[in-house]
Amino acid sequence: MERTDEHRDLIPDDSDLYNEGGQIAMHLIPTEDEVVALLRDSGALRSGHFEYSNGLHSDQYLNVAQVMRHYDTAKQLSVALSRKLRANPEIRAIIPELSIVAPATGGLPVAYGVCEALRARQVYWAEKGEDGGPLRFRPYVEPEPGEKVLLVDDILRTGQKLTELRAMIEARGATVVGLAVVVYQPNPRTPSFGNLPFYYLAKLEAMYFMDSASIDRSKLPGPVERVWV
């Protein structure tokens, strides 16, 4: 798919982050419509009839990796997300000691982009074991007691990995200070993260059916396409 450059200059450098009064210039963050346009232009957001690996059927499929693979759009989205985080004074105050942690390798482009834009301390991630078991950290790269951690991913849809990652981090005595994703696309099974500060650039309200028997064919016509992420 041919890329367009109409959104290339949406996000200026971080030197433009604050206005003369020292307040966050929130207008420098792209609107939700602009983010959705980037997703559609890149092919990351598609419409149709999709069946996810957990059995849910939906009229939308989103693969954020398709927009994050290009440097210009990846930078735009990462810097925009970092600006939302800087608007929280408590997070802004601990940036030099803040660790950015992703629940899987799919969130790494966002995690590294946010870390670079914030100038945070470090990035690391969890991953599935060789047997496909629970998430784990690589040897010698894991949370330390008292460490301040920001959870970052490309999308919050089921929330399963992020929930598991949060529990792992807190079990090691570290503190999760917030959660940031490019897109929030909740389904009927998406858990709540309570009072944890939560940031996203766009929220997508997809249509979901719990299984094939419950599908309204007038709303999900055509052949089904099975997707695994």
Structural class: alpha/beta
- Tell me the quaternary state: single chain
SSE order, one letter for each helix or strand:
HEEHHHEHEEEHEEEE
Spans with pLDDT under 50 lasting ≥5 residues? 1-27
Helical content (DSSP H or I, runs of 4+): 25-40%
User: How many β-strand stretches?
Assistant: 10
Radius of gyration over alpha carbons?
18 Å
Structural commentary:
- This protein has helices at residues 32-42, 65-68, 71-86, 89-93, 108-118, 160-171; strands spanning 45-51, 57-62, 98-102, 122-128, 135-137, 148-156, 175-184, 198-203, 208-209, 225-226.
- The model is unreliable at 1-27 (pLDDT under 50).
- It contains six helices and ten strands; from the N terminus they run H-E-E-H-H-H-E-H-E-E-E-H-E-E-E-E.
- It is globular and about 50 Å long.
- The protein is α/β, with parallel strands linked by helices and 229 residues long.
- Strands 5-4-3-6-7-8 form a six-stranded mixed sheet, with helices on both faces. A four-stranded mixed sheet has the order 9-2-1-10.
- It has one domain: Rossmann fold, CATH 3.40.50.
- It starts with 31 loop residues before the first helix and ends with a strand.
